[in-house]
Amino acid sequence: MVELVKVDEDIWEVPQSYKPDMKVPGRIFLSDKLIKDLEDGSIEQVANVATLPGIQKYAMAMPDAHIGYGFPIGGVAAFDLDTGVISPGGVGFDINCGVRLLKSDLKVEDIRKDADNLIERLYHNVPSGLGSESKLRVSDTVLNEVFEKGARWAVENGYGVKADLEHCEENGEMKGANFAKVSKKAHERGRSQLGTLGSGNHFLEIQYVEKIYDEQVAKAFGLEEGKVTVMIHCGSRGAGHQICTDYIKVLEKASRKYGIKLYDRQLACAPLSSEEAKDYISAMAAAANYAWANRQVISHWVRETFNDYYKSEIKMDLLYDVAHNVAKFEEHDINGKRVKVCVHRKGATRAFAPGREEVPVAFRNVGQPVIIPGSMGSASYVLVGTQKAMETTFGSTCHGAGRVMSRHAAKKEVRGSEIKKELLEMGIIVKAPKDSAIAEEAPEVYKDIDDVIEVVHRLGISKKVARLVPIAVAKG
């Protein structure tokens, strides 16, 4: 196993000499404390990614890194458009798994006594759990519109307002999506799941702003201490999973066809200029759009639930919606030149600096909102994108706390009923389809979110704006 080289505070390097085919070094961003939890397999995956054709600068892993499929979760890698590749393993199975934050005018003291009833209603109104099915009945024609329009389909059909679109990465609609590149099986899996939370680490959480770190940016974001927020974390459901599964097979063949040496078959990929890559990109964009529509529909039902409960119109504006699992074409400065590259973020969050045209006009003077969920029982954070991120990580930062224990191991070692009781004693109400769903997402199976956030804040690849504390959680 390679010995990591500490090149600066919180920055560790996998030397390019570790494997003969590494085209760039690896960079892992971790504190001395967090590096003790990093699995050897994650380091190996960073080194493997560094062998892929056309990779630029570094193969990177954020502080929440852990082992994933091919690429580590928390991985970031950018590829040259002429010599580089795209890999479904660098995007992940849950394409555009992401998170959004609704900010309300309610004060925490206004809802404490209502939290149990509110989360019960949210749990009832937003279908969740493994294989959960939607309240919507979606025809093939409608589903194709969802794949191509994303959140815009939802807003055009009454599930939100136009301002929601302006506050989504890519305006909630990735260009180039083509439903014809999505298999029949992916269509079938997606048809019944639009507007569902799903399972695993997906959740819907009522929170409040406990602390503001940057008054100026918080004001621009519309965040105030003591105000209630709702965080929604989910992705493209079975449709995205099936699209990834389908195209891994296609790109495995493409890897052989184009003579790409793979240290791990899970890194199956194709040259960005190839037909196989273009087809995957079109299908990936369709899955990303499905995910944005999914979160938009759920947001609508969250707003309806609050309005119905309080018998009045509750202000619940969308702060921002960020993607965690996606590959995008972006311009970055490399070796003194502005070039377009394909950036893979797999369990990582875009964190663009002030002035970038991709940042909504409302935030362009301060930078992109970065929303980082914690685990049940721990805080979540709102940060802001920075110029340092543009220079260091292709405008990227972490996406969460990062696991230290697999779901399988968690269900063996942790009792969900006990976790639920402990959280209740902390003032946090949890609703879940079954206790095992709580066990596999228990706070102790994750790194300490405060430690992870301190690393990205110290590095300057995103800066702290606000800390959010959970009140009630509906688990998928």
From TrEMBL:
<feature type="active site" description="GMP-histidine intermediate">
    <location>
        <position position="399"/>
    </location>
</feature>
<keyword id="KW-0479">Metal-binding</keyword>
<dbReference type="InterPro" id="IPR036025">
    <property type="entry name" value="RtcB-like_sf"/>
</dbReference>
<dbReference type="GO" id="GO:0005525">
    <property type="term" value="F:GTP binding"/>
</dbReference>
<dbReference type="Pfam" id="PF01139">
    <property type="entry name" value="RtcB"/>
</dbReference>
<feature type="binding site">
    <location>
        <position position="475"/>
    </location>
    <ligand>
        <name>GMP</name>
    </ligand>
</feature>
<feature type="binding site">
    <location>
        <position position="94"/>
    </location>
    <ligand>
        <name>Mn(2+) 1</name>
    </ligand>
</feature>
<dbReference type="GO" id="GO:0170057">
    <property type="term" value="F:RNA ligase (GTP) activity"/>
</dbReference>
<feature type="binding site">
    <location>
        <position position="380"/>
    </location>
    <ligand>
        <name>GMP</name>
    </ligand>
</feature>
<feature type="binding site">
    <location>
        <begin position="399"/>
        <end position="402"/>
    </location>
    <ligand>
        <name>GMP</name>
    </ligand>
</feature>
<keyword id="KW-0342">GTP-binding</keyword>
<dbReference type="InterPro" id="IPR001233">
    <property type="entry name" value="RtcB"/>
</dbReference>
<keyword id="KW-0464">Manganese</keyword>
<protein>
    <recommendedName>
        <fullName>tRNA-splicing ligase RtcB</fullName>
        <ecNumber>6.5.1.-</ecNumber>
    </recommendedName>
</protein>
<dbReference type="GO" id="GO:0003972">
    <property type="term" value="F:RNA ligase (ATP) activity"/>
</dbReference>
<comment type="function">
    <text>Essential for tRNA splicing and maturation. Acts by directly joining spliced tRNA halves to mature-sized tRNAs. Joins RNA with 2',3'-cyclic-phosphate or 3'-phosphate ends to RNA with 5'-hydroxy ends.</text>
</comment>
<feature type="binding site">
    <location>
        <begin position="201"/>
        <end position="205"/>
    </location>
    <ligand>
        <name>GMP</name>
    </ligand>
</feature>
<dbReference type="GO" id="GO:0006388">
    <property type="term" value="P:tRNA splicing, via endonucleolytic cleavage and ligation"/>
</dbReference>
<dbReference type="GO" id="GO:0046872">
    <property type="term" value="F:metal ion binding"/>
</dbReference>
<keyword id="KW-0547">Nucleotide-binding</keyword>
<feature type="binding site">
    <location>
        <begin position="373"/>
        <end position="376"/>
    </location>
    <ligand>
        <name>GMP</name>
    </ligand>
</feature>
<comment type="similarity">
    <text>Belongs to the RtcB family.</text>
</comment>
<feature type="binding site">
    <location>
        <begin position="324"/>
        <end position="325"/>
    </location>
    <ligand>
        <name>GMP</name>
    </ligand>
</feature>
<comment type="subunit">
    <text>Monomer.</text>
</comment>
<feature type="binding site">
    <location>
        <position position="202"/>
    </location>
    <ligand>
        <name>Mn(2+) 1</name>
    </ligand>
</feature>
<keyword id="KW-0436">Ligase</keyword>
<feature type="binding site">
    <location>
        <position position="233"/>
    </location>
    <ligand>
        <name>Mn(2+) 2</name>
    </ligand>
</feature>
<feature type="binding site">
    <location>
        <position position="324"/>
    </location>
    <ligand>
        <name>Mn(2+) 2</name>
    </ligand>
</feature>
